[in-house]
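Aim 2 progress update. The chain analyzed this quarter is reproduced below.
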Amino acid sequence: MGLLTLGTPLSWNEIVPYVEYIKEHGIAQFIALYHRLKGREGDQLKWGDEIEYTIVKFDDDAKKVRVSLRAEELLNQLQAGEELNALLGNDNCCLWRPEFAAYMIEGTPGAPYGGLLACFNVVESNMISRRAEVTRLLKGDESVMSISFPSLGTPDFTSPSYEPRPDGDNNSGCSIFFPDEAIYAGHPRFRNLVRNIKQRRGEKVAINVPIYKDINTPNPYQVSF
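Predicted structure tokens:
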């Protein structure tokens, strides 16, 4: 995830008058930085990794797994620990940041790795520490996974459960599958991003997977949502 700062984001219509200005000055800044730094040598390579965790909730009685919309709650606790360490002068093993969805959090190392081969030896242990740190805050019926959740967009896939409202006037995405409540609400970037993409395109994003047709597929194929 890129740099997140606090502020009031603009709508697409408010951005349009500044588009050419942003393009022009972005190119000018790039060229200026290139000429200022093109001769710099001897810098140490700094690198890292990020893992996006999906918070899931198990309903054993219904034999169903849902995504748990507790990312903001968990991030508040995780980032409070970061701030406390900073005040005490302690190093943070991990750093935690929001992601697009209200069921996702992003974990990174507390500091960049260096340019020595020995740095590769601590990557796995840091990943283990990250998972342990967030797992301590989970409820007994929750877990985190770092792969895509296979049931996104199916009915009742969130906890708490929300229904998509594609015709809502104040909705960001107007999706027929994905409710706005599943978008992270702790920072204005994410819902505003979806809203601005929709305004810029003049329509909402629609990605339809082609239907594989065999002898049992109705023709025409119709689905009611």
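The first helix runs from residue 12 to 15. The first strand starts at residue 51 and ends at 59. These observations will guide the mutagenesis experiments scheduled for the next reporting period.
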